[in-house]
Amino acid sequence: MDFGLSPEQEMLKDAVARCLAETCPLDHVRACADAGTAVSEAVGAALSTMGLTGLMIPEAHGGLGLPLLDAVVVAEELGRAVAPVPFLARSALAPLAMTLAGSNEQQARWLPLIASGDARFGVAISGIVERRDGSTVRADGNGLSGTALLALDFEGASHFVVADDAGRLHVIDADADGVEPVPLKTIDVTRGTGELRLSGARCESLSDDGGSAARRLRDAGRVLLAADSLGAADAMIAKAVAYAGEREQFGRVIGSFQAVKHMCAEMAARHEPCRALVWYAAHAFDAMPDEAALSACHAKSLTGEVHRFVARTATEVHGGMGFTDLLGLHYWFKRIGFDRQVLGGPERVRAEAAHLQGWATVAA
Amino acid sequence: MDLDYGPEYDQFRAEVRDFIARNRHLAPRSSGRAARPSPEAVAWQTLLIGHGYTARTIPHEYGGYGAEPDILKSRIIAEEFARAGAPGGLSNQGISMLVPTLLELGTEEQKRLWIPSTLRGEIVWCQGYSEPGAGSDLAALRTSAREESGHFIINGQKIWTSTAKQADMIFCLVRTELDAPKHAGISYLIFSMDTPGIEVRPLRTMTGHAEFNETFFTDVRVPVDQIVGERGQGWSVANATLGHERGMLGDPDALENRLLALVRLMQEERIGAARVMDDLVLRDRLVGLQAEVAAMKCNGMRILSNQLKGEPGGMAKLVVKLQSCELAHQISALAIDAMGELGILYGGGERERDGGAWQWNYMFQLGLIIGGGTAQIQKNIIAERGLNMPREPRPKVSRPAVRKEVA
User: Fold this and answer.
1) Which domains does chain A have, with CATH numbers?
2) Taking Cα atoms as reference points, which of A147, A161, A273 lies closest to residue B301?
3) Is the pLDDT of residue A364 over 60?
4) What pLDDT is recorded for position B85?
5) Sites in chain B below the pLDDT cut of 70
6) Which residues, numbered 307 to 346 in chain B, qualify as contacts with chain A under a Cβ-Cβ cut-off of 8 Å?
7) Which of A214, B89, B148, B284 is most buried (most C-beta within 10 Å)?
8) What is the ipTM of this complex?
9) Which residues from chain B sit within 8 angstroms of residue A1, using beta carbons?
């Protein structure tokens, strides 16, 4: 019995944290934002040296062959550092798509390219969560047509994994005829997001499995977004506590006022149990398939709610300074906002959770 | 991450499960929390002690089972009894708070005299800590005990003394050193509730029941050797047991059982022909609470794992009382809302659900948010011990809690 991270996972966490402390201070995040990019070459290169592009790729295909819980460890640190670097889709979901739905030949062809960074994937599966603006992706003899509304790790992607309306996954080349990648401006400038307008785009289809691989991708994505949110919220609480310990008003540090202290305590009290829940959800994904989807819903919805509270409360503890651009607190605020909405906000995810348990007589 | 307990423990779990299956017909119907245990409850307690399923690590010479501490085995016992809906051993303030205190700080004579009889359910205890003027600031207590010819003479008033009506004995904090700073002037005494000069008045709460009492002391004479620890050290003696009380208030298995009862309620209740479970707003709240209960369960596993490794519980442990009590209250609140207009029924009647338990819980759990260290005190603890935030500035000199009268 050992509920928590293994010594190896703790080492991975420390290594990623050290790497990001060196390569990704706030000034760097700001510089990338000012340059209009969510793909830091410096941070990407450093993480790639550690083998993180192949984190979840089997060793036989040039990766580290680690489970989702290890990716959770990395995602948490990326969130903590608000790192402008593709990871979720590029290094976790795309390799998962290949291992879950790719043929042996497809795996042998794609996975080494992903591990080496020669193929840089984005992933567009939002359509299986909820369709907005009438978006739809159809697959037929002519390839893919329609609109995939939210492609994650869009910026710099050479390829995309796209889910069609039936939940089948396809690989497309970003430069192929019939593919029009359109960047989207979002609150979170540390993530490159876009939409794909498809008109008979040539695609390479993965297994027709009734959408089960796409659902696994969705579950993994939810857990990783929850983990990213965990790291970002952790950083915001730490910043609020540190600020409250320095800022003086009425002749005292404001952290000695119970009004301020209790705001921090409430953040910590609601936040801390989320950590164990996210770990559990990752472990369920890796080892307990019956519980994976429900645990992913719980982790996603609870972090969405709790960290919205953390984001606004930590900002308030900073007073007027929290509202300015000077401290850069808003990078974390917006990262948390992104993590909450993408792949289903709390209400949407809870509706699915009810459906999964047979509580709903009407399908979610 | 490894959620398996291992073969030795799987074997142990099978034994516990088998024991419950073979013996549960002997289990008392009334809860082990009743103030004065029934003969069935006492027999059940004796059976459980004999098998090491309660009082497990208390030494044999003091009436326990005498096993080496094993966190996982204790956890398995709790899990299996909860899963089977079978009552564990007696659960009262004597067993949960006084016994651990005596084991740690009592004299040999005190241990032999009080622990076995308390474990057997023969002696019922009540706790005399809080006073009308000493709640969150417990160390400001003023109930006095002056020494006179081999006795302490006690005068004052305690409040929140649950089970005082039924109790044989009280463990009580009193001020013995009037001149000392407030934390250093307290002693921990144990004495009979039959001692002349004690008056117990039931304290009716918002639930309509008297779950607590007020207890008044007028010249109550207690032999000076009925003290636990040294004179003036009662504060640290009491703090040893406050931790046990807070641990009792944050059991994730209890939360999960309440949640399951709520799920059943929402599947059974109807609005017209429709199930309450099909109301999207109520169902959304239910799933939200389910996620929080899941988080507290996982948090509990994390704490357990830390204990196994001999690591401190840290923030994961500090938040348990605050979060669990709030969550329990919200579960009851949703149950009342799920009953709609009939949610107001309380105090009997054929339409009342579950004997009015949801309304009683909704009110009583608010009491638990306040009791055992208020939510606000919990937040101070989380901020100061967990986040290392500065304390509220205090007066420079800690004055004696009771000022000497000027002649």
Assistant:
1) 7-116 (1.10.540.10), 121-205 (2.40.110.10), 212-356 (1.20.140.10)
2) A273
3) no
4) 86
5) 30-34, 242-249, 396-407
6) 308-309, 315-316, 319, 322-323
7) A214
8) 0.97
9) 2-6, 9, 72, 304-305, 308
